[in-house]
Every structure is written in structure tokens, then in C-alpha cells.
Design a protein that fits this description.
The complex is a heterotrimer. Chain A has helices spanning about 5-10, 25-35; strands at about 40, 45-50, 55, 60-65, 75-85, 90-95, 105-110, 115-125, 130-135. Chain A is mainly beta. In chain B, strand 7 (about 85-90) and strand 8 (about 95-105) form a beta hairpin. The interface between A and B is medium-sized, with 35 and 32 residues.
Chain lengths: ~150, ~110, ~270
């Protein structure tokens, strides 16, 4: 019994946002490699904010910010977020410009299970930066009648 | 007409960095979930969000099925000159929704 | 098969969770200070923030939809809610905080959904909304949002007492395959953890709520059905008066607490 089945069982009728077929840490690593190629990814400058304990995986608030002057000569071009266990490793890719003034974006994502989330920022000089977060997803109690 | 909530200041000081928040009603069906009859519900998501200030695209986002239902996006913009912020969402089955906000820069 | 599998799992969860209950729950009917807590207070800061910010609270999208419906002319009468009720900010202020109530000329209580349906069928002469249809929920959210910040004020109507007694009886009765009552969780174990989730005191302060589990807006009735299903009790049919009785009891129990619809809940 893998962890997902165990959790699904203990949490009763879990309408997980995703079915068990899932991406894996390897699939995430592969998706990241595809993005960055052979470039170095340094765990600096990026901040990934998520609640450490998530009350429901359907809507998880997430903020990514990157230290950057956001000038025409030096700005964050893109921010990508990846996950290990949803069916697809890519969560979103945002394209930024110096017109943003501040490299900080927020959204809400679905997470079917506790896992690691990785944010990667690409700066205008072609370098990559990252941050990651390990989150624990609590599964809701008292759910819907069987569908 | 889609239900959309946008939070952006109507006026801003020249050069100020302002926050834009946008929320849109959309089910974001993943395409991985079984429906009541056990069949997988077809995917129906917003794939793309863009923000333009007058004619310049300043921000965009490619979404996936892992973005929550009723998607929320927040980002920043430099209030360089008075103009119209134009937000646009497009997705599966020809989904298109737009919202415009006039921002006066003084 | 799926349902059976989950039913078994449920025994495990509830059994284990009570044994492992972490924090000490507060007894609700303490003497003196009001120890009642809205489910809002049991949420983490991220979800509280989501509820507090009107442009971040997804429930507000439904309020927006409801405001459009409020001024849409429909039915044989060709009238909009607004044609009779004017500006909802004044005409609907505090209304949701009083429901369920017995409408003029009727002899049994209706909840806000039922009250809106009365206007829809009798005044607008349009077909009633389906239970929990999005349009109905959107109108409920729009009407309920006009009571935000108002205290829950159940009507002082003696005809409602027998309904409240019935509601309380259901609340205290052990039922379902798990042989649990609402009171065992929401009075005696409120504040404790159930499989990682804090058991709230079950005050109906935020309905209709945007429940993340539903990925949408839902009614108090749907919430009650979820809890009945959770203890493997037989569900009353969707339109059953038992729900209105429970709602009346819960509103009385939450009398004076602050309305916060559309709330966000996990």
C-alpha cells in the first residue's frame, strides 16, 4: 500500500483533485532539466511562500518572489513552479518583464498529497535560481456522499 | 459574461509599483477526475492569462490543471503612464474572458 | 465498492483520531464568558486572509453573480428582485441573520433558499431553482453578504420552538453506523483534531460558504449532509424539513455571533 492509498483510505471519501496516476520526483527532475538544460540552478534569491500545513489541497495559496532590481538590464524573465506528485510536474510558468517593477507573483494550486514544490526563476542574464518547500496536506473530514 | 473580480488602484503616482489581483470564476476541471458515472470528466481549464498595459504585454502565465478552481493571480506593475490595464483569460473549448481597468497616473 | 472501502476506513479514522486527540477542546456552554468560536477562528492565517480580502475570496465571485441576478427581470411577472426590494444593501440588511423563519401566511419555516424560492415562484412567477443550483446559491450569497457583520438574530416566534426542539434532538441523537451524535464532535470534542482537521463548533455563521473541498459555493444543508454522510447516517431527502429544523437549532445556538457570509472553509 503506497502512501497515497493509505491517506485516501484514512481520509474517507477523498475526492482528491487528481487520480492516483501521478508524476514522480523523477518526472519533476526531468521537467526541470528540460527547462534549464545544463545550466546551474542556484538555491538563492527565490522565496517560495506556502502555508506549511495545508488544510485542503484543492486550494493552496502560493507566493513566489525573487530578489531583482527589475530594470531593463537586469530582471526576472520567468518564474516556473513544479510539483512531484500531481499527474503533471508543471504547475505554471509566468513570464515577467521590467514593467512589473517587483518580481513577486501569487496564485493558488491543487495538491493531491504532501510533497515537495519547487520554484525556479530565470533572470535576464540566462541564469537560474530556485527555492523549494515541503508541504503537508491535510485531507478534509466529513465529505460528500459517494458520487 | 464571466464573473471576474479585479483589484487594481484607479490612480497611482508616476513610477509607483502597484499590485494587481484578479479572480475569475472557472471550474478548472483537471481531466483526471472521474465524474458521477465513473467516466473521466473532460479537461476544461484556463490555459493562458495575459496582462497588457495599453499595447505592451507586461505579464503572462501558462496555467495547468494544477491551478485551483476559480483561479487567482496576483502580480505587480510599474505605473509608468496613464493607461488601460487589459486582462485576458483563454482556455479549453474556446473560453475567453476579459476585463479592463483604467489607471490614471499622476 | 468504493463506498464500502471508505466506510471501513472511516471507522479507523474516527477511532484513531479520538484516541490521539491532540489539543484540549473547549467546552462550549461554559459559565460566564462566551466560548463560542466561529469556524473562521479554527482556520490558519492563509485561509483567514482569503476570506477577509473581497478580491481574493472566491465566494465574492458568486456574490457578483447574485448581484446580476438580483436585477435581472425573469418569469411571467417580468420582475427583478430589485424591482420590489430596491437596493439590497438596505432592504436585505440583516435578513439572512434571521432565517429560517415562517413567512407571512405560511405555517412552517423556510430557510433563505426556500424564502428566495417563494419570491421566485410567487412574485416573479418563474420556476423554482433546483436545490443547490448555482443561481440559487449566488442569490443566497448576495442576500447573505448584506448581513455581514450583523449578529445572528433568530426570530422570536413561538411557533418555531417545536422545530428547534426537533433540531436539537437530531443534534444530540447518536446515529449512523459510527453511532455518533453531532454533539459528540461539535460540543464535546470541538477544538480537537480529527485526522489533522480541527473539529469546529459548527456555527452556521458563514453560509453559503466557499468550501475548498467543494471547489465552489455550497449551502448549510449541503454541509449538514456531508457530516451525516461522514458518520454513515441515513441522509434525509434533500428537501426534508429535518434540515430546516437543524438549521433553526444551529442558528439559535449561534445567536448573537457575527455573520460572515460568504465565508471560506477548508
Amino acid at each position: 500500500m503506497d502512501r497515497r492509498h493509505f491517506l485516501a483510505g484514512t481520509a474517507v471519501l477523498v475526492l482528491l483533485p487528481f487520480e492516483p496516476a501521478a508524476a514522480t520526483p523523477a518526472a519533476m527532475a526531468e521537467a526541470i532539466r528540460k527547462l534549464v538544460g545544463d545550466a546551474d540552478v542556484r538555491e538563492e534569491r527565490v522565496k517560495l511562500d506556502m502555508p506549511p500545513l495545508i488544510e485542503n489541497g484543492n486550494t493552496v495559496p502560493l507566493t513566489v518572489s525573487v530578489e531583482s532590481p527589475m530594470t531593463v538590464g537586469d530582471y526576472v524573465k520567468a518564474i516556473h513552479v513544479f510539483n512531484e506528485k500531481n499527474p503533471q510536474p508543471n504547475v505554471f510558468s509566468a513570464t515577467l518583464s521590467p514593467r512589473n517593477g517587483k518580481a513577486m507573483i501569487g496564485t493558488r494550486i491543487k495538491l493531491g498529497d504532501s510533497q515537495k514544490i519547487v520554484a525556479i526563476a530565470e533572470t535576464s542574464d540566462g541564469r537560474f535560481w530556485s527555492a523549494s518547500a515541503d508541504v503537508i496536506v491535510t485531507l478534509a473530514a466529513c465529505l460528500e456522499e459517494a458520487t | 459574461m464571466a464573473n471576474i473580480l479585479v483589484n487594481a488602484p484607479k490612480t497611482a503616482k508616476r513610477g509607483a509599483v502597484i499590485e494587481i489581483k484578479a479572480l475569475i470564476m472557472h471550474q478548472m476541471e483537471t481531466g483526471f477526475r472521474p465524474g458521477p458515472n465513473g467516466q473521466i470528466l473532460p479537461r476544461n481549464i484556463i490555459e493562458h492569462f495575459t496582462a497588457t498595459w495599453d499595447d505592451a504585454e507586461i505579464f503572462s502565465m501558462e496555467m495547468s490543471p494544477a491551478i485551483s478552481a476559480n483561479p487567482f493571480v496576483s502580480f505587480f506593475a510599474v505605473a509608468s503612464e496613464s493607461g488601460t490595464l487589459h486582462l485576458r483569460w483563454t482556455g479549453d473549448h474556446g473560453f475567453v474572458a476579459e476585463e479592463k481597468v483604467a489607471i490614471a497616473v499622476e | 465498492m468504493r463506498a464500502r472501502y471508505f466506510a471501513i476506513a472511516l471507522f479507523l479514522v474516527f477511532g484513531a483520531s479520538f484516541a490521539l486527540a491532540q489539543s484540549q477542546g473547549q467546552s462550549q456552554r461554559g459559565s460566564g464568558a462566551d466560548t463560542r468560536r466561529s469556524g473562521y477562528q479554527d482556520m490558519g492565517p492563509a485561509l483567514q486572509q482569503m476570506q477577509d480580502d473581497d478580491t481574493a475570496n472566491p465566494g465574492m465571485l458568486f456574490v457578483q453573480q447574485g448581484s446580476k441576478l438580483w436585477s435581472a427581470r425573469v418569469g411571467v411577472a417580468g420582475k427583478a428582485c430589485a424591482d420590489c426590494h430596491g437596493d439590497a444593501a438596505t432592504s436585505m440588511k440583516g435578513v439572512a441573520a434571521r432565517y429560517p423563519a415562517i413567512p407571512p401566511g405560511a405555517d412552517r419555516p423556510v430557510d433563505l433558499e426556500g424564502r428566495i424560492d417563494l419570491c421566485r415562484t410567487e412574485r416573479q412567477q418563474a420556476p423554482a431553482f433546483a436545490h443547490d443550483s448555482q443561481d440559487s446559491l449566488a442569490l443566497q450569497a448576495f442576500v447573505a453578504a448584506q448581513s455581514r457583520g450583523q449578529p445572528i438574530a433568530p426570530p422570536d416566534d413561538p411557533r418555531l420552538s417545536s422545530w428547534r426542539v426537533q433540531g436539537e434532538e437530531i443534534y444530540r441523537r447518536r446515529q449512523g453506523q459510527l453511532n455518533l451524535s453531532c454533539a459528540i464532535c461539535h460540543d464535546e470534542n470541538a477544538g480537537k483534531k480529527l485526522a489533522g482537521v480541527t473539529i469546529p463548533q459548527a456555527h452556521p455563521t458563514g453560509y453559503p460558504v466557499y468550501r475548498l473541498e467543494w471547489q465552489g459555493l455550497g449551502s448549510l444543508r449541503r454541509r449538514l449532509r456531508n457530516c451525516l454522510f461522514g458518520i454513515r447516517a441515513e441522509l434525509y431527502p434533500v428537501g426534508a424539513p429535518e434540515y430546516v429544523a437543524l438549521e433553526l437549532y444551529l442558528m439559535e445556538r449561534a445567536k448573537g455571533m457575527t455573520m460572515e457570509a460568504p465565508a471560506v472553509r477548508p
